[in-house]
Amino acid sequence: MATNEWTKSKGIENNDENVLQKHVMFFDRNKDGIIYPSETFQGFRAIGCGYLLSIIAAIFINVGLSRKTRRGKSFSLCFPIEVKNIHMSKHGSDSRVYDERGRFVQTKFEEIFVKYARTHPDALTSDELNKFLKSNREPKDFAGWLASFTEWKILYLLCKDENGLLKKDVVRAAYDGSLFERMTNEKESKKEA
Fold this sequence. Notes:
Elements: H1 3-9, H2 19-25, E1 34-35, H3 37-46, H4 51-69, E2 81-82, H5 106-116, E3 123-124, H6 126-135, H7 142-159, E4 166-167, H8 168-176, H9 178-192
Antiparallel strand pairs: 1-2, 3-4
């Protein structure tokens, strides 16, 4: 089944309307519209994360997002995440690059680099990333602070270049999900070499 047919059959928008769904679809390893912790683990391993980080990410992400994406359904110890409802899991203290429906907001994305990329206009240093994260903190939103910190620090650790810069095109690819396929392909290429 082609990706467009699959996404339509699962109630997933496959256009620029819901980029947040595209961001998480990489982790739906069996393409059934549901992401289980084992799939989150496999996705993190596929992009080059170690076992410990992959286990922690799978637990943290699935436990944190499952209930939010399954409103009105009974609790499940399998902690599934429903891709079609991923927009319901947005947390506070974020960049607001995804709107409440999961759409990509270009102006908010550009704002990150206009406001915080002082050393290089198309990249963030570790210090600039920290300033960005602090500026997005909502009062007493400790869960949102932790979620944003974790997301961005993992992205920085995995994707910074040799000069310690997190490039704008890499961040954009993380938002639309294309980064994960690229990282998987790069990992596979290194294995073959």
